[in-house]
Amino acid sequence: MRLVRDDGRTEQVIATEVETADSFLSQARGLMFRRSIPDEYALVFRFDEAASRDVHMVFVPFPLDVLWLRDDEVQRKERLSAWTGLAEAEADRLIELPAGSADAVSVGDEVRLER
């Protein structure tokens, strides 16, 4: 799987090592307790419906770029600092990436998961 950003003019692959967090336990754990993640990595949280989704950085020792999506459209983008970052937005999909991976992503872009 890979994660692709589409701004309507160009497409860009932003991650090639994609893991999904579909169970309650995998979603609750997220990236906590990991020492690092690869540069081409993304953790995708899929939900049945859009709702307020928060992300905390407790026990995450490295910064992340986080995308909140609704129907594949980016609603919010935030860089969260290690250990102390916290943010929330409405989404039906949430994506966590290494800091810097989402620099080219803007609110309104489409981000989709491809096989």
Automatic annotation (TrEMBL):
It comes from Halorussus limi. PANTHER family: UPF0127 PROTEIN MJ1496. Gene3D superfamilies: Protein of unknown function DUF192. It comes from the Archaea. It holds the Pfam family DUF192. This is DUF192 domain-containing protein. Signal peptide: none annotated. Transmembrane segments: none annotated. InterPro entries: DUF192, Saro_0823-like_sf.
